[in-house]
Give the backbone structure.
Amino acid sequence: MNIKLLSYYINEKTPTYGNQNSFKLQNLSSIESGATANSSKWILQTNHVGTHIDFPLHFCSNGKSSNDYKPDFWIFNRVGVIESSIENFSNELDKLSEDIEILIWKSGFGQFRNDEIYWKSQPVIPSFFADLIKKKLPNVRIFGFDMISLTSKLDRDEGKKAHIKFLCDHEILIIEDMNLNDINKS
């Protein structure tokens, strides 16, 4: 079995959307200091830290949360991978089998994860991608990619529209900030 880690480890250098409210780790007790056990407090001042899933409740007032999905929702038999720029996305999407349940898009932008451009100037993902995906892949339940968010800081309005299209209109969950360094189309 070939297993690949698709998420990043969270630490105090993890980029966040807008590079604000970063992850903080506070040590509460330490064996080295005489305590019985090591213990720490994780402070997440945003719901946008590291690889994560956006659920419909994030943008839809009556949307589902993680608790609303049964275990079998998370079993995928047909995974599709696109490796392309935004401009070639539609052409690559057309090459996939229509029975895909989870779509992973390797845009190449993940190479900038440790640079300011990653959170400050990622490409704008157009909201119509949700319609394209649902039309071509009617069984798709999740769309994941290697950018910090579906919303680029360069066009927040379009990002909001994209979130609503994916999460509310089509109920396609979003996985943001995926580690796709070891993923290839084949």
Remarks:
- The chain has a mean pLDDT of 90.
- The radius of gyration is 18 Å.
